């Protein structure tokens, strides 16, 4: 799930968006019988533990569109299923489908699973789908996962909204494309957003308190 798509979803009704996805989640009719059966086994396993099946079907259809081999498609679907399971566990107790998808994307680019759990603990009642999407984009651009997570959580603690997080990620992407070092770009853009926000009410979830 791309950052731009997450941004558009955040501006619409998540319930309506999820319902729409569920209606179009169909395996491509061109899938051969062996692949269809292999994907169905993954879907049965996902269904048994409550994972969003539509995401697995979409992954299979992506592989079919790219003319990947049945084995590669099956392996990709199985790997995604594992990431979705880990994401759901780390974002417990009741993550939305979009949060699970964003968490799986974060895991794919190398974000350690405990970071997802820390973010959920810090914001149990706020959707983390978009913040996780921003985190994923930053890590994909070369930022260390811990550094990127620290910045995103600090901004959230200061009250940054999805529009501001989106602008941060887009600006960093542009800076990196222009030749900036990822960490320098992040520092610059984060300071710009911070200057528009009120003081933090409490320490970041990623900051260890000083011992007396």
Q: How is the secondary structure organized here?
A:
Layout: H1 3-11, H2 14-24, H3 33-48, H4 53-65, H5 70-90, H6 97-108, H7 113-122, H8 129-140, H9 145-157, H10 162-177, H11 182-194
What does this structure look like?
- The chain has one domain.
- It has eleven helices and no strands.
- The protein has helices at 3-11, 14-24, 33-48, 53-65, 70-90, 97-108, 113-122, 129-140, 145-157, 162-177, 182-194.
- Helix 9 runs parallel beside helix 11 and helix 10 runs antiparallel to helix 11 (182-194).
- The longest helix is centred in the middle third of the chain and has 21 residues, at 70-90.
- It is globular, with a radius of gyration of 18 Å.
- It starts with a helix and ends in an 18-residue tail after the last helix.
**Terminal residue distance:** 44 Å
Please tell me the total number of domains.
Answer: 1
Unreliable residue stretches = 11-23
Tertiary shape:
globular
Instruction: Give the percentage of residues in beta strands.
Output: under 5%
Radius of gyration, in Å, reads 18 Å
Number of strands: 0
- Total helix count? 11
What series of H and E elements makes up the topology? HHHHHHHHHHH
Average of the residue pLDDT scores: 87
What helical percentage do the residues reach? 55-70%
Q: What is the structure about, briefly put?
A:
The chain has helices at residues 3-11, 14-24, 33-48, 53-65, 70-90, 97-108, 113-122, 129-140, 145-157, 162-177, 182-194.
């Amino acid at each position: 799930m791309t950052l731009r798509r997450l941004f558009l979803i955040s501006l619409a009704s998540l319930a309506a968006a999820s319902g729409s996805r569920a209606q179009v989640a169909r395996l491509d009719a061109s899938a051969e019988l062996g692949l269809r059966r292999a994907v169905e086994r993954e879907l049965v396993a996902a269904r048994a533990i409550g994972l969003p099946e539509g995401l697995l079907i979409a992954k299979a259809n992506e592989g079919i569109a790219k003319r990947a081999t049945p084995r590669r498609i099956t392996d990709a679907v199985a790997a995604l299923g594992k990431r979705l399971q880990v994401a759901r566990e780390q974002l417990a107790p009741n993550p939305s489908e979009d949060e699970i998808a964003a968490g799986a994307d974060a895991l794919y680019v190398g974000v350690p699973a405990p970071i997802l759990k820390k973010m959920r603990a810090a914001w149990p009642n706020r959707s983390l789908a978009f913040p996780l999407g921003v985190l994923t984009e930053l890590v994909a651009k070369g930022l260390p996962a811990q550094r990127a997570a620290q910045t995103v959580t600090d901004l959230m603690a200061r009250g940054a909204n999805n529009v501001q997080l989106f602008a941060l990620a887009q600006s960093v992407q542009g800076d990196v494309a222009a030749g900036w070092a990822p960490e320098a770009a992040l520092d610059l853009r984060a300071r710009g957003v911070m200057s528009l926000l009120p003081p933090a009410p409490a320490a970041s979830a990623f900051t260890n308190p000083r011992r007396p």
